Amino acid sequence: MDTFAALSQGVMVALQPMNLLFAFVGVMLGTAVGVLPGIGPALTVALLLPITFKLDPAGSLIMFAGIYYGGMYGGSTASILLNTPGESASIVTALEGNKMARAGRGGPALATAAIGSFVAGTIATIGLALIAPTIVDLAISFGPEDYFALMVLAFTTVSAAFGSSVTRGLTSLFIGLSLGLIGIDLQSGQARLSFGVPDLLDGVEVTTLAVALFAIGETLSVVAAGARADEIIEPVKGSVFMNREDWKRSWKPWLRGTFLGFPIGAMPAGGAEIPTFLSYALEKRLCRKPGEFGNGAIEGVAGPEAANNAAAAGVLVPLLTLGLPTSATAAIMLAGFQQYGMNPGPLLFATNPDLVWGLIASLFIANGMLLVLNLPLVGLWVRLLAIPRPWLYGGILVFATLGTLGANPSLVELGMLLVFGLLGYVLRRYDYPIAPVVVGLILGPLAEQQLRRALAISVGDPLVLFQSPVALTLYVLSALALFGPLLFYVITGRKAPVGADED
Amino acid sequence: MSDSRPTSTAGPDKARFVIAFALAVLALVVGWDAWRLSGINTYSAVGPEAFPAIIAAGLALLALANAVEAVREGAQDRPRDEAGPMAWVLAGLIGQIVLLAFGAGFAIATGWLFAATAKGFGRGPLWGHFLAGAAMCFVIYVVFAKGLQLALPAGPLERLI
């Protein structure tokens, strides 16, 4: 009952004209960047952070959430028409979607993706609203040792879920953790790893790192690939409307995808990629015309797209209730909260209920906007795909440096952008995932804070970390995340079907 | 990444050896810093050196793990990256910093970045793109400085307004 009172209060906040405008701008921007190759929602939010610094917190956070949801929609458009997913959770959509587009059924593919995303997004957002208060109640009783264990779980799942091997994921994570050490230690006042450079005393800015890794690193790897990376756009032929058979074949995959995506996204297990792979495998098994799989089966678009969006909403559960980002975009959104001096977590529900519930309510609105906008505007999005790459990437770099200079007009900051950009290029070149670096930078200092708090309470006895049942359970889950793929390999003799990257 | 799946050939993967080595160096730096901090007396149960020490240990282990994987997986055939286009983009980024350092202002410096990036992606002429980029960045400067009160570096062009 309380939930509904709070949510209806949130709806009032979300329906304010200004906030509706923010949501609209967010979903338009999000769809555009989701469609464009090379920029995703994480980068866009990172670039907008310095610009929104002086705006109303609720409005900007609503816009960020709109970008996040919009990015998911846009990604599906790009993967269906271009066969190069705009963001990684759309990789599976490209498998069947692009085949459908080539067979002249691009319209229905886009439609089932859009409607499936809407269905999944709505159900998952209801799930978020229902489940969040329970987790908040639970989280209130968490001690610092439990929070530390929770962060260890986030670390391990993020490293195991992204990238082609656990070693690579952990390597990225530890690079991020090392970067997180830089600056003044708030408890003792000691400068760490700053080598006397004053600009380093404040630590590495999350936005600088994210913009460098995503924008500069991506640009460098695309330009280095040269003519290798040329793409063909499939024109949308025929009607964008689905016929009766399309509907009949789509609605069950939508629901199944939702129920796969939301729980996996909501667990501190990172990312929207895994449920899309699972949903694809499930639909392939259940489909009554298995021969169509691989040649453009509509189920193979409907299921994964729903899973993708449900997981995207699920990721907001640990972010809002525990302050735990499990994807790069969520990590940047956490930075967005922090720039207004707010920390997502159980306390935020008590101190800023209007903001939190306004944000959740605006997710419903964003979802509706996306459904209404996406199909009629498909022509516009397709035209975005046709921007010549020299101008697109030139523009991306202009905005990347603009965002960095806007946040901190210092040349050292630009130098760091360059250095981290090169790091991003090297990571991409040798198949190391990017997201764990960002998550490590933002969660590392928080984990250290909880660790030291726990040890301060126990007067330095490290056993306190393993005495709470909550923490123990979380460590077991962490171990499973790390060694799960290995177990899978030992038991079935096949490589675990994980491994995706970015956002 | 659109690279095709790399195939393995004989010998260890040199690139990942280099990465392993870099991680080992990073472990040493972080570990050295932790050691330096441990010498400073602080009044808390856990000092500022504890967490860095854990990370240094983790980095050292990962250096080993990467080296082991480099040997086990063998050398990889990665598609060759083109140095020329990359050099243009890097020249754009470094040039922007240098131009800003000499007070050229946001529009000129970022115009150069735009032109060099476009050149790297194979679109000339450099001169025309520089003019277009500088004009675009000048508009951006006006919007940001006037509309959002963000301080972007000003140069001779920006001081005209």
UniProtKB/TrEMBL annotation, chain A:
Q: Which residues form the DUF112 domain?
A: 20-438
For this UniProt record, the keywords arranged alphabetically read as follows: Membrane, Transmembrane, Transmembrane helix
Q: Which residues cross the membrane?
A: 20-49, 61-82, 109-135, 147-163, 315-335, 355-379, 391-412, 463-491
Note the InterPro entries from the entry: DUF112_TM
Quote the PANTHER family the UniProt record gives. Answer: TRICARBOXYLIC TRANSPORT PROTEIN
Name of the protein described by the UniProt record: Tripartite tricarboxylate transporter TctA
Origin organism is Ancylobacter dichloromethanicus
TrEMBL record, chain B:
Record flagged with keyword Lipid metabolism:
no
Q: Where are the transmembrane segments?
A: 15-35, 50-68, 88-114, 126-144
Residues of the DUF1468 domain: 18-153
Sorted UniProt keywords: Membrane, Transmembrane, Transmembrane helix
This chain's protein is named: C4-dicarboxylate ABC transporter
Q: Which organism is it from?
A: Ancylobacter dichloromethanicus
